[in-house]
């Protein structure tokens, strides 16, 4: 049986990289006594896969990992056991059961929503919340992207599904829903960099505090995108 | 959640910020208002090295079991953070509270190897604690050092308030109670240190005066006042089955060097190899009970979720209940996909059988440590391993499917001649030959056998029979390495043998510190001030600066390394009683020079003196 675990990451745990988060969960699952399935062969490992890696420094309210389990005592029991094995800064939010044949987490990822604040002292000089909508109206948003062969030009416009601002002054937040698939992943920093450049400013290092609010999969649509959170795919159990 | 000591911009700039945030599984956080004593436990190297050390896990757990004490951890900031901390004047902080080390009552630094001495100064400096003990006040923590290098603490004596000689489980409670009482009574720092100096196992350098002879050797080391003991006897935990051991070791987030649950199965070693300091200072041999080990194995795996468990001791094959323990572990672990790691095993039929059950034979290598290339030299060093043992073990291993062998040797052992060195090549070749004789061509999985021969350079250590030996010069070491390499190259099976040798420069320095005296302190400080830290790391080791520091301080390296010691010489460490008598060590040195072997503790007691502790193997019933 495959379960999908939704978790949040914040505080000091922002500085634990993706591979170490994986290792953390492997040990947590052992501590929790969850009946996880192992692969065959000489170095068996837990059958576990994560949806999308989260960069160091970002916090998140919508991370996902899929886990193959051999048996269970219901989602409440599993959630409680796993919660006891957590540390401050990683919180288990929700566990759902996936139907057989559901696409794995990583292959399912289509988009992600981010909220972006400027760190204290780093906010740009102009009224940026006011200018954000205008920026998004542009027919194309060109950025330079470094590749192995040098640099290419990339049009971000089609990869940004929503972009809006909320709040005022130093509490203002930029929100965006962007392509997060393995082939077309867009970093929120790239969007903000293009936005600032468009307004005559450079994006400083460490200027942004970024939170991934949710990770989405494509629910299928003939007319445009219909994104649903990854944990809307499975069922309660 | 508590605030982090380092702001985001710094954590995002440095390598592996996880080194500095604490918050690990099983890390202990207490309310500082509810404790009387705060201890910062320090391993003076980077987090990944420090977190691999079992001793700190044991003492961390012990201190935190005391309700009135909160013990936290601190490690050396890596070079990138070190630079930022100095530029921005950020004081060194402990991981659990993220608060400055300077605010703690004790800074306890473990001394596991000599090449971390400059990092000790880094830790003090970044903590804003005066480097010299004499300059400290009640504004600063008590700086205490312990561990194997505390058996010759003299080169770093100037930097410490106290040294704890011996095993840490026994005497800390008394020391902390004394501290609390002194604080309550408004005693001065010196008054506290004076009382501490009279506690068993405590060495307080400020109360001892060292005088030197014209030739530079020690004339005397005397207490400066009445009541201070002339000799300090090491502390020994005699009841190892019933003492502190962590049920919930701290689990790092990032990959560290030793990333597994460690079970220390016994202390001490019966073999008495003459170069080995650990084999002497951890006498008498004491085994932990099978019941205790089983209990802890289960608890530690449950509390950590670790995927591997390892048995730690100087010579695990000599643990009398090894078969039962391993059977238990295999039963516990195989269903749960937990790996079992068994280093320090003799290669024989039993261990090969065990290892084939717990390891992937095709991928792992077998390790032999002959240490010397000829039987003659192995007898000198009392390493009882014979060529027959090795070849027989190798044959069994190859039959069992192993294809990789590691061999460890030392160069520069006392009485070594060219024939001994060439023996390294010959022995490596004979092992390769055994492979080709034992395994028919069609069964050779990788085609060839892979033998890796490694040599390190012999460094005489205090409290060993070889403490009188002259160490080789750097040039002599390199010459020996060339002979080894040439000898291997001319073997029939040389294509199956790879040879690695160690850096000579760092060995020379280790040789100075190992048998150094108080005069060395200023060299260490000079090298540190000129930028030397992380000396154990080859990419940061600056030999040129060290050589200049010795010159600038007018200290002759050869006095400490290549000089042969007189049999009546007073050593800087003679004021310590390590449990084994100097007479015994002298006897062993003389036996070495006549190539005479000494049997192990279980076969025939050699009267080393450790039986005065009243327990351990000295009193085991002979079966």
What does this structure look like?
The complex is a heterodimer of chains A (237) and B (623). In chain A, helix 1 crosses helix 2. With 237 residues, chain A is an alpha+beta fold. In chain A, strand 10 and strand 11 form a beta hairpin. Chain A has helices at 18-32, 75-84, 105-108, 128-137, 188-198; strands spanning 2-9, 48-50, 59-68, 90-98, 109-118, 142-147, 150-155, 160-166, 173-179, 208-218, 227-229. In chain A, strands 1, 2, 3, 4, 5, 8, 9, 10 and 11 form a nine-stranded mixed sheet that branches. A two-stranded antiparallel ribbon of chain A has the order 6-7. Chain A folds into two domains: 2-101, Pseudouridine synthase I, catalytic domain, N-terminal subdomain (Alpha-Beta Plaits, 2-Layer Sandwich); 108-232. Chain B is of the alpha/beta class and 623 residues long. Among the domains of chain B are: 8-233, Cobalamin-binding domain (Rossmann fold, 3-Layer(aba) Sandwich), CATH 3.40.50.280; 260-345 and 580-623, Transcription Regulator spoIIAA (2-Layer Sandwich), CATH 3.30.750. In chain B, 33% of the residues lie in helices and 14% in strands. Chain B is built from 20 helices and 19 strands. Chain B has helices at 8-11, 47-50, 54-65, 79-87, 117-126, 172-184, 189-197, 277-281, 290-304, 322-334, 349-358, 375-380, 387-399, 418-438, 474-489, 504-514, 521-529, 543-552, 557-560, 582-593, and strands at residues 37-43, 69-75, 106-110, 142-146, 162-164, 202-203, 208-212, 218-223, 232-233, 261-264, 266-267, 286-287, 308-312, 339-341, 366-371, 404-411, 450-457, 497-501, 576-577. Chain B has a six-stranded mixed sheet. A four-stranded parallel sheet of chain B has the order 15-16-17-18. A three-stranded parallel sheet of chain B has the order 10-13-14, with helices on one face. In chain B, helix 9 runs parallel beside helix 10 (322-334), helix 13 (387-399) packs parallel to helix 14 (418-438) and helix 14 (418-438) runs parallel beside helix 15. The longest helix of chain B is centred in the C-terminal third of the chain and has 21 residues, at 418-438. Classes of the chains: A alpha+beta (237), B alpha/beta (623). The interface between A and B is medium-sized, with 29 and 28 residues.
């Amino acid at each position: 049986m495959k379960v999908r675990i939704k978790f949040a990451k914040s505080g000091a745990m922002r500085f634990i990289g993706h591979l170490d988060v994986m290792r953390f969960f492997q040990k947590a699952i052992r501590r929790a006594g969850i009946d996880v399935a192992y692969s065959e062969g000489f170095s068996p490992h837990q059958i576990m896969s994560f949806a999308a890696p989260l960069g160091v420094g970002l916090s998140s309210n919508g991370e996902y990992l899929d886990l193959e389990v051999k048996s269970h005592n219901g989602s409440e029991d599993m959630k409680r056991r796993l919660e006891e094995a957590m540390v401050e800064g990683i919180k288990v939010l929700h566990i759902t059961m996936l139907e057989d044949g559901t696409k794995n987490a990583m292959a399912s990822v289509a988009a992600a929503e981010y909220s972006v604040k400027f760190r204290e002292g780093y906010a740009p000089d102009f009224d940026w919340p006011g200018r954000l909508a205008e920026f998004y109206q542009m027919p194309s948003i060109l950025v330079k992207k470094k590749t192995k062969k040098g640099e290419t030009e990339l049009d971000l416009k089609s990869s940004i599904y929503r972009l809006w601002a909320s709040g005022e002054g130093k509490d203002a937040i930029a929100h965006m829903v962007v392509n997060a698939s393995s082939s077309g992943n867009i970093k929120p920093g790239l969007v903000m960099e293009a936005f600032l450049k468009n307004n005559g400013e450079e994006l400083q290092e460490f200027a942004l505090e970024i939170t991934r609010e949710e990770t989405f999969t494509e629910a299928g649509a003939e007319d445009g995108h219909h994104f649903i959170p990854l944990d809307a795919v499975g069922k309660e159990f | 959640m508590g605030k982090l000591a380092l702001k985001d911009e710094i954590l995002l700039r440095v390598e592996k910020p996880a080194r500095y945030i604490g918050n690990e599984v099983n890390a202990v956080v207490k309310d500082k208002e509810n404790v009387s004593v705060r201890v910062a436990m320090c391993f003076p190297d980077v987090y990944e090295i420090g977190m691999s050390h079992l001793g700190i896990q044991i003492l961390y757990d012990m201190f935190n079991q005391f309700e009135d004490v909160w013990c936290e951890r601190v490690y050396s900031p890596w070079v990138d953070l070190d630079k930022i901390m100095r530029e921005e004047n950020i004081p060194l902080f402990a991981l659990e509270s993220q608060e400055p080390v300077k605010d703690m009552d004790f800074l306890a630094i473990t001394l596991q190897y000599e090449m971390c001495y400059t990092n000790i100064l880094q830790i003090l400096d970044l903590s804003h604690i005066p480097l010299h003990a004499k300059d400290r006040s009640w504004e600063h923590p008590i700086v205490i050092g312990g561990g194997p290098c505390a058996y010759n603490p003299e080169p770093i004596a100037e930097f410490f308030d106290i040294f704890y000689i011996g095993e840490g489980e026994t005497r800390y409670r008394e020391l902390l109670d004394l501290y609390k009482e002194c604080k309550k009574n408004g005693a001065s720092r010196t008054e506290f240190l004076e009382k501490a100096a009279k506690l068993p196992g405590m060495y307080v350098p400020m109360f001892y005066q060292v005088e030197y002879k014209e030739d530079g050797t020690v004339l005397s080391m005397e207490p400066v006042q009445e009541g201070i003991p002339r000799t300090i006897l090491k502390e020994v935990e005699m009841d190892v089955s019933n003492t502190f051991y962590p049920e919930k070791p701290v689990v790092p987030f990032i990959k560290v060097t030793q990333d597994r649950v460690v079970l220390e199965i016994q202390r001490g070693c019966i073999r008495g190899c003459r170069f080995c300091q650990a084999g002497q200072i951890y006498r008498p041999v004491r085994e932990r009970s099978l019941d205790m080990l089983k209990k802890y194995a289960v608890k530690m795996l449950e509390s950590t979720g670790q995927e591997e468990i390892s048995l730690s001791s100087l010579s695990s094959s000599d643990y009398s209940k090894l078969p039962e323990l391993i059977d238990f572990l295999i039963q516990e672990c195989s269903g749960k996909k937990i790996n079992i790691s068994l280093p320090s095993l003799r290669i024989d039929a039993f261990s090969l059988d065990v290892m084939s059950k717990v390891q992937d034979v095709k991928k792992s290598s077998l390790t032999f440590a002959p240490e010397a290339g000829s039987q003659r030299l192995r007898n000198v060093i009392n390493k009882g391993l014979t060529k027959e043992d090795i070849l027989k073990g190798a044959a069994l291993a190859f039959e069992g499917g192993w294809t990789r062998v590691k061999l460890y040797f030392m160069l520069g052992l006392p009485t070594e001649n060219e024939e001994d060195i060439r023996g390294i090549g010959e022995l490596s070749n004979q092992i390769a030959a055994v492979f080709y004789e034992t395994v028919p061509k069609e069964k050779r999985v990788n085609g060839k056998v892979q033998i890796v021969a490694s040599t390190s350079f012999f460094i005489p250590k205090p409290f060993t029979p070889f403490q009188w030996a002259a160490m080789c010069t750097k040039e002599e070491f390199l010459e020996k390495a060339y002979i080894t390499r040439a000898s291997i190259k001319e073997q029939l099976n040389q294509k199956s043998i790879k040879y690695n040798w160690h850096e000579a420069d760092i060995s020379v320095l280790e040789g100075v510190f190992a048998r150094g005296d108080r005069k060395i302190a200023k060299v260490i400080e000079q090298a540190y001030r000129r930028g030397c830290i992380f000396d154990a790391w080859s990419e940061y080791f600056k030999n040129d600066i060290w050589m200049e520091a010795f010159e600038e301080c007018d200290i002759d390296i050869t006095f400490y390394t290549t000089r042969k010691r007189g049999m009546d010489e007073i050593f800087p460490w003679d004021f310590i009683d390590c449990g084994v008598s100097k007479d015994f060590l002298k006897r062993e040195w003389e036996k070495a020079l006549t190539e005479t072997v000494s049997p192990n503790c279980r076969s025939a007691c050699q009267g080393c003196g450790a039986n005065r502790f009243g327990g351990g193997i000295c009193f085991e019933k002979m079966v």
